[in-house]
Structure formats: C-alpha cells, structure tokens
Amino acid sequence: MNSPFKTIGLIGKPHHNGANQTLKGLHDYLTQRGFTVLVESRVALALGVADSESIVDLVQLGERADLAIVVGGDGNMLGAARVLSRFDVAVIGVNRGNLGFLTDLSPQDYLVPLEQVLSGHFKSEQRFLLEASVYRHGERKASNLAVNEAVLHPGKIAHMIEFEVYIDGSFMYSQRSDGLIVATPTGSTAYSLSAGGAILTPKLSAITLVPMFPHTLSSRPIVLDADCEVRLLVSPDNQDDAMQVSCDGQITLAVHPGDEIIIKKSHHQLKLVHPLDYSYFHVLRNKLGWGSKLF
Q1: Residues designated catalytic
Q2: N or C end: fewer C-beta atoms under 10 angstroms in the chain?
Q3: Per-position b or e across 167-177, b if 16+ CB within 10 A of its CB
Q4: Residue 11, class by beta-carbon neighbours within 10 Å (0-12 exposed, 13-18 middle, 19+ buried)?
Q5: 88-121, pLDDT tens digit by residue?
Q6: Is 248 known to sit in a ligand binding site?
C-alpha cells in the first residue's frame, strides 16, 4: 500500500478483552500489509508479542512512529497524548471505552475507515495542551501537561478553599469554592461540561475557567484567549494542606497553602487524524444525545 505512514505504533487498554481483541486484529492486519509495527510494552505482554525490536515504551514509540493507534477509551488517549504530543506523530483512536470523544473509530468496523487513513485520505487537526506548574517560595516544585483540563481542588471532599485568580498578571477575582477547572476546547466536553462550562469547538484558541461550587452566585465560567497566563495564588490561610492540581484526572501535583499555580498553553500539540467523513458535530450529537434533524 502506498501510504504516508510507514511505521505504526499500537497503544491499548491493558487487561481489557475487547481492546486486546482489536489490538490483535490490528497487529495482524498491519503486519500482513508490510507496515513496521511497534507495540507499547504493556500491550505486547497482553498480545504475546515476542519480537523485542518491536516492543517499545511510549517515548520510543513517539520517536519512531509516523502514526499511533490508541485502542481504548478517552482516558487511554489522554495518557498517551500527554507523551505523544512531544513528537511529530499522528494519532487516531479506536473506541473501546464509554464516551469516545477522542477515539472515534468504531471497534465493529474500524478497518474500512482505517484503510482510508492509511492510504492518505484523512482529516488532520492540532489540539493544544496546557502546562500546569506549582511554585513554592518562588521555586517550581512540579509540573505536567493536560490535554483536557488542569483542576485546582482540595484534598478533602466538599472542602472549600480560598484562592486568587490573575490573568496575565492582572487580578481578576478572589474565590471561595471547591476549586477551579481550567479547560481546553478538547476538555470542554469533559469535566468542565459537567460543572456547567461552555462547549468550545476544537479549532478555537481559547480556554475556559469554570468555578466548582463557588460560594457566591455571581461567580460564572469565563472564556479566555488561550495565550493568557492563568495564575492561581492559594491563600496561606487555607486549612487544607493536601490540595492538588489534577491534570486530566490522571496526574496530581501537590499544593500547599500559599503556593502559586501557573497554567498556560503548552508549545506541545496533539496531532489527531480522522477519516474524511468525520464530523465534530456528529460526535457531539451522538455522545450528548442531541436531537436528530426535523426535516
């Protein structure tokens, strides 16, 4: 096959029978068609891949692959995306999870659309990430990337915290709430949506700040230019010394009273590819149960 992709990486959902079944089918299909196939180490174990040359970790896969196929749910895609965004590798997903906003190929009939993608007939888009960093006494203590959102929240359930919000160095407001969600357009259909945030279409260069259970009715979500720097100054009077910044609900950074959190657009971008008939609004309609056409 004359394909823009020569080396293809497989990433999956460990110990999931459905995902392993799809991964096995993909491995056989791609190998038979002459592609160089790299298999992420946890997947290789589940599939019984013995060729040590083709077994890699995520970083090695990002360095060597032209295309990465993620089989699983959006959580698997998010975990892979934080690593793969550092490399020039295209990413596509086969949905073996629940919602599947990011993994849009159906596990029942993924081969036909995948064949189109492999032959060069696909749509491509860039999704930006956020970088969240925690500073203590002016020293950076921890940082990580987020595809969906970075969330400041207390360590204890239903525990109010106090913090100030600065945008590009200008004071915006102080808040007493259960936390704050800072979401990308990709993340606007995730945790942010559950908290009452707006849906942002993927091409927007914007981020949304969504307060979590604020202790005032005047506190509302706000949409900002994605190039803004968001600085959260945590009150030193907070009683909770186990606060956290959570990145995509998967990585947590410890936050203490008096800490400063900087959240800004990362220079890393995730390169997603889709079949030509992919429609973002079709995905929204399906996943959110919106009404069908009237006429």
Answers
A1: 74
A2: C
A3: beeeeebebeb
A4: buried
A5: 999 999 998 777 789 889 888 899 999 999 999 9
A6: no
Q: Give the model confidence (pLDDT) of 242-291 as tens digits.
A: 899 999 999 999 999 999 999 999 999 999 999 999 999 998 998 888 98
CB 5 within 8 A of CB 67: yes
**Do the annotations mark residue 29 as ligand-binding?**
no
Q: Was 268 annotated as part of a binding site?
A: no
Residue ranges of the chain with per-residue pLDDT less than 50: none
Structurally, at CATH architecture level, domain 129-268 sits in Sandwich (2.60)
Strands 206-211 and 180-183 come out as: antiparallel
For tokens 């995948």, name the residue.
114
CATH topology for the 7-122+275-288 domain: Rossmann fold (3.40.50)
Structure tokens at 201: 């279409």
CA 49/CA 39 separation, integer angstroms: 8
